[in-house]
Amino acid sequence: MTRIIAGAASSLRLKVPERGTRPTSDRVREAIFSTLEAWDFVADTRVLDLYAGSGALGLEAVSRGARECVLVEKHAGAAKIAQLNAHTVLGAVHKSEREAQAKVCVSAVRTFLLAPPAELFDVALIDPPYDLQETELTECLELLRPHLVENAAVLVERDKRSPEPMWPAGYSLIKVKDYGETSCWWAEAAKLEE
Questions:
Q1: Which of 32, 77, 95, 158 would disulfide-bridge 162, Cβ 3.0–4.6 Å?
Q2: Cβ-contact 127, 24 below 8 angstroms
Q3: To the nearest 10°, the Cα dihedral for 87, 61, 108, 180?
Q4: Are 4 and 12 a contacting pair, CB within 8 Å?
Q5: Average model confidence (pLDDT) for the chain?
């Protein structure tokens, strides 16, 4: 069972696609948001959730106080479930008299990132399929940088056996933490060269 852990939608159950996704465990999600909250990167932020699946990561951010999240998922079935989850979470958030938005983009991550940024994000949560090639992840990070504000927090969640992401220019690695079979790599978006 996947659920929202904390915030306005605390304990709400989320739907999960029957196959094709690997939801982040409650333990890892709690650790991710403990880090973000310690850095003051949740309240009133814009969050980009790439390879969103059910949308659990981005919607956890909205429940905890993020102003907006954009969930990018290429599989139509998973995106439909993410949309249902977003509707449920936003209902709880709006009952708490706080405004928030969640948008689902049915798109490949690369296609989404190749478009000129319509807005800039404070946080990017990247939880790709474990079999994603390292070169694809590096390209994703390169294409992502123009979509981020300076000093944005970037999380890459991978299998513990995966190598460190090849961070392109524009990022500074700040933290690595393992949780069972999962590794969380944290980076900060550095200032872009003029």
A1: 158
A2: yes
A3: -120
A4: yes
A5: 93
Query: Residue holding tokens 């460190």?
Result: 164
Question: Tokens 């709006």 — which residue?
Answer: 94
Calpha distance 43→118 (Å, rounded):
21
Q: pLDDT digit string (tens) for 40-56?
A: 999 999 999 999 999 99
The three-state (H, E, C) secondary structure of 130-161, written as one string? CCCCHHHHHHHHHHHHHHEEEEEEEEEEEECC
Cα–Cα distance, 113 to 129 (Å, whole number): 17
Which residues touch 130 (CB under 8 Å, ≥6 apart)? Answer: 22, 158, 159, 162
Q: Which of 88, 136, 80, 83 is nearest to 113 (CA)?
A: 136
